[in-house]
Amino acid sequence: MTTIAEISDTSGTPGTGTHAGGPGRATDAFVRAARLEALLGDPYDPANPHGLRALFAADARREPPAATEELLTGHGTGAEFVPAAHGGLLTRADHLVRALRPVFRRDLALGFGHGITSLFAAGVIWAAGSEQQRGHVARRLLAGGRATTLHHELAHANAILRHEFTARPAPRTGPTAPGGQLLGGRKDVIINAARADLQVVYARTDAARGPRSHSVFLLDAADQVPHQVRHLPRVEIPGMRGVLFSGLEFHDCPVPARALVGTAGAGVALALRTFQVNRSLVCGAVTAAADTVLRSAVRAATEGRGRRPVARRWHKPLAGVFADVLACDSMSTVVLRALSLLPAGAHVFAAAVKYVVPDLLREDLEELAPVLGAHGYDHLSPEYGALGKLARDLPVAGFGHAGRASCQAALVPQLRNLAERSWFAEEEPPAELFRSGARLPDLDYRLLGIAGGGDFMAASLTGSAARLAAARGAGGHIAALAALAQEFVAELRTLQEQCRRLPTSGAALADSAVAVLSDRYCRVVGAAAVLGVWEGQDGSDPFLANPAWAVLALSRIAGHLGIPVPELPEGCQEQVLQELVRRYRDGRSYDLDALAPAT
Length: 599
Known about the structure:
Layout: H1 4-8, H2 23-40, H3 52-60, H4 66-75, H5 93-106, H6 108-128, H7 131-142, E1 147-150, E2 165-169, E3 181-191, E4 198-204, E5 214-220, E6 229-231, E7 245-255, E8 260-261, H8 267-302, H9 315-341, H10 346-372, H11 386-397, H12 400-421, H13 456-468, H14 476-499, H15 512-535, H16 542-545, H17 548-561, H18 572-586
Parallel strand pairs: 1-4, 2-4
Antiparallel strand pairs: 2-3, 3-7, 4-5, 5-8, 6-7
């Protein structure tokens, strides 16, 4: 197995620093991504056992891509999910996504089934585990092991979030005494239930509903005996066909006192703390996966045309989806950075981004389908099979309706307080939030807030609009951007008036009209991320420094909100399309980093 020292060695790499969250670590992430890219090989080579053809074929067989999983394990990717303080490579969440983009671009399901879901489980341990628990999890993941989460049941639950476990005090005499629990219950759909070495279990420990109803336990599968734990058959779900989902049933399974994570009754709070990281990582992952689909659409639109321009009928969908991908990467990157820089208040923006990004990308897939035409039905083709696969995988990655509902549940109770105390009153966040090379603290799960903390993105929106106001008479792209910024500020004022009238609690918060308010709010702060990223450009990338992409992205978000959108400035769509084709021909990625080689 590759050692951690080998993976993180950046000797001879310019710009490598020693600050834990500084530019040197970002360089480390780029280096790790480049090594992973080289390890996985040319995705379009039909003979490559880790290329798209092999990955799509494994998906069609409903099997994990065993050879590629083995390759990633040997490469030591488990270290990406272990904090540097415990011998791993995890420093910042935005660096983690950057390092693993080569996996997500090839196969979102592979990135989940053999990767990031282990961090979803381990995050609870990084947030509240004892030193013994943290060390145990770190050693398992560094050795190539897996961890999985046994979720508690949520409202609007789908198969993954339905049913839950219970834990009751064990008798005073027995193998778990003193202070142990007996675990019972059944869940039919758990990711990697049959393969995980470690299980993070959310179990109900109080029959009453409320914030102290659940506790979290860390279990080691090696300690369980067959008559207390029954493995249930594999379950096939519509997406992520190469991920192994099956169930577990516990029958008075002894759980020692040392297995409790944090304190008794802390399960709901720990879920809220860690879900914001998971939500943000999902957005970064699905945005990377969309890169490959967009690339296949550009291939379809340019194939056989030589250097001739793309047919005019494809200009709008191709440029528009490219702008959306940049917008999604802006939202994802900003929230991932906020987890480090503004941990007390990132939970609101994390829920908003998770609500918007998968929905936006789902619409983009529909928009690209006509561009691909008949090619889109060639599901095993490395050149064109990505759209059909991501269309299946995306709802699973985002937990579908249950995921959207949980984001709204996190947002809606806070809208009135934000309207009354934060919007148009709070100070802007530090500019480092939007600058790719800025030094930020490492991600510390223990500092993440779950309530309060204000709304730094609404403050960023008003600040951006104020700085752009003087450009409204300048004409061209910058004037269009200034006008759009003012429209989003006006939308925020309207939301403020409406949200101030919301009840503080009760069944009225579940009304569909309130859900519409949260939807509009999510898109407004998503627009704020686009403005912030554009303002944060240092000029090293002329395309990103030009406002054309931001104008197109914000115009599309405004269209979702029903905001009157003026006609695009002359050359706006054409500039974005030209960059899209240029990146395709240069083999560069469609995200904010624009790296090569890309899938």
